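User: My collaborator and I are trying to settle a disagreement about how two of our proteins should look. Neither of us wants to argue from intuition anymore, so we agreed to look at predicted structures for both before our next call. Could you fold the first one, then the second, and keep them clearly separated?

Assistant: That sounds like a sensible way to settle it. I'll keep them separate. The first protein:
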Amino acid sequence: MESLGAMFWKHCALFKEQYALAFRTEHEVRRITYEKVQDLSAQIAAGLLYTGMRPGERIAICGRASPEWVLTYWAIQLIGCIDVALDPEEKLERNLSVLTLTECRALFLGEEKLRRPFQQSLPSLQLYDLSWKSGISNLTDLCQLQGRKRKLPLRRLSADPASIVQTRREEEGQNIVLTHTGILSNLARVAEAVPITLKDRLLTLLPLWHTSGRTALHLTFWTGSTLAFPSSGVMEDDLQSLRPTVVLGSVEHFRRLYYRLKEGYHTEGPVSLFLRKLYFSWSAMVNQSSVFLETGRMALRSGNSPLQITETLLHAIFFVLGSVLRIPGDIFIGQPLARELGRLKAILVGGQRIPADLDDFFQTLRIAVLAGYWLSETSHMAASRQLPAPGQSARLLSQTVGPLLRGMELKIKNTGGDDVTHIPGQRGTIFLRGPGIMAGYYKNPVRTAEVLDSNGWLNTRDRGYLKHSGELVID
């Protein structure tokens, strides 16, 4: 399999006239084509080569999601270096520890307040400002260095490390090593579950230093779609101005949107607010019947007791009648609210269990909730609800993280160590194996051996179970 840099180079040439990035300035929405991203990244990469950087060396990025972050990331991949992603909100001591452990030679910094602490603590580290402004070493300086005619990209072996990323967990020494093969293999499976096209625009509300945010970054350049960055704290503004079709965020992001839309505005009268709450309450019951019918249909295959048949029949009747009675609400409440969300057709959320009320709310507005099972140790994700695609039916069962991605293997072990994977509803610890599994924790073989055995099985330390329908539920 090719490297990340080779994939980027090939896809930029393939989609060169498409817009790769979109962002808001004070007065307008600006866009950058794949051809321009390729050119700027290549210039930065050539500048890094001119300064003496070589394949396999580590370069850190510490900043918020931005076009400059993306350009720098791809420049690092083009020259075969390993990016070390730092959280700008993390404690300084931890970031310094990561930089020292990984022996980074350079750091791209997007937070001016951190410049002096980094300079004082690591004076030998080459610092670049993650911007184009003059006065300090920055992207402009790299682009102007006399090395631009060097051949790009320099290819890496697919099994080589591509990235070292931090985990959100508090334990020290958990800097995850991801390979080119692992990232690209998992990405190919994610693209199957979330079929994005050239016409789609992904708005990411998650940081690019973490693998959750990189899901949007990698998926964009894999599919030729557009990656958009938020510009304000109000999601509705970005939904209207940037017009994304898919939003990648956390439960907290979508809960704020949920409250603003469901609870209404202060200018609305009491009758309007009452009808809106009634509509969503009724829709929740209809949605619950839909979930029961989906899981009940699978359960009936393994047993057909009179009670199961009767219960399934009653839910079927209620679902049909409830859907008919909901039509006026869809027309006068649901559709106007959906228009406030612009072109949004799906939300992608993981890392936390999505509450039932949020699931019902977006499902009512005909917006697919692509809840997934995200782990940094699996490169992007291990399971996800699925949008319909040619040869693939929709798998959007509420309160689940969907089926496992193709190629991912699962074992569920109970407290006694017994394998209960194939017993629906039996809870246990989740073990995973697949091509996206990490290479290990950087320079920490002891910790690696605790979670990753010699056969490639990763102990996620999460608990869950499988439903009759094959969807995974995380406790």
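The second protein, kept apart from the first:
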Amino acid sequence: MPSTKFLPVAVIALLLTACGEVAPPDVPFLAYGDDYQSKPDLARVEYELPLSPDDLMTLTPENVARLNQEQVDQVYARLTAGPVPDGAYNGTFFFADGGGAKRLSEVMGGIKGLAVRFKLAKLETVGQMLWKGKVFYRDQRLLRNMIQDRKLLKLVVDDPDALPKTDIPGRKIFGLIQDDAWLLFPAKLYCGQSLLDSRRESIIIDYAYNDEIDGYRERPDFLAGRRGLRIRDEIRMVRPGFYLGRAYMGHVFLLNFTLYNEAVAESAAGSFMQTGEVAEDCWPGSQKPGRLVALGR
């Protein structure tokens, strides 16, 4: 039986979803303007406005996607890497106003900018149909992506019938048959410097040398590697079971994404709210994490 202290947030989220709208999370942000010089120092953001465990518990994959890019960045900067995940995590990605690929449409403006924005919306829709999240192999420090089995993709995948598959967590057809996905685009996992916030490490998802990983398939896995788009992801933990990520092509920021494991989130919620403590596999930096400051620890 879940604790009643979690019910108000859950009920509010349910009601908003039922109405077809999700409100942005009610967490504080330092003031900023449109120009780069107005963006606040990230260390100052965490020092003046630390996010408590209660604040972090109000964040969800749905409401984080309602933030603009500066707000997403301020949230990310107040997180630590946490533990390297293990197992399957449902994924969603989003283009936030003012950053990444969406920034291009804003800079271009007019009809051209509107056209780019339309194409990004279409890309987001198609991408969500195909990409369902990531499966982490913590002990091996490896990862694979869950890609929905679509007939069109079989034309560009080597020997699709022999591809390994996995169940998509929480995805059941008619409540009975578990939906599944291909395991594609392998990557290596390690701790490394964040391209946004160098004060502490993030968990890096590196596709550069994915051709060295067992199970690699030239088509389509090369697309993410060093001979393709040179994709590099980094993630930090919002709270147990929930990670916020950033995807780069080379060193160019593209988009944000979230990863969520419901079982981990539910089992660790109580302890996290009380102590704010988690296992840290990566260097948490010299600045004390805001969630511990907020608890007076």
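Some points you might bring to the call about the second protein. The beta strands are 87-94, 131-137, 142-148, 165-173, 177-193, 201-206, 231-239, 242-249, 252-260. Residues 4-294 form one domain.
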